[in-house]
What does this fold into?
Amino acid sequence: MVKKNQNGSTEIAGRNFNANDYQKNDALSSGLATTHEQVSDTYMEGVIETNDLNEQE
It folds into this structure.
């Protein structure tokens, strides 16, 4: 006997961010939009590397 997926988790797991998620009101779209914004901000910020002026080689 094959169990039916009652909660649709396989569809949720396969879902990717779409720009329209910013305008939607459901929890999944809101979560994807928020996560996309956080990742985008982190990627754009990057890493600031500086040379230590006290170290002399």
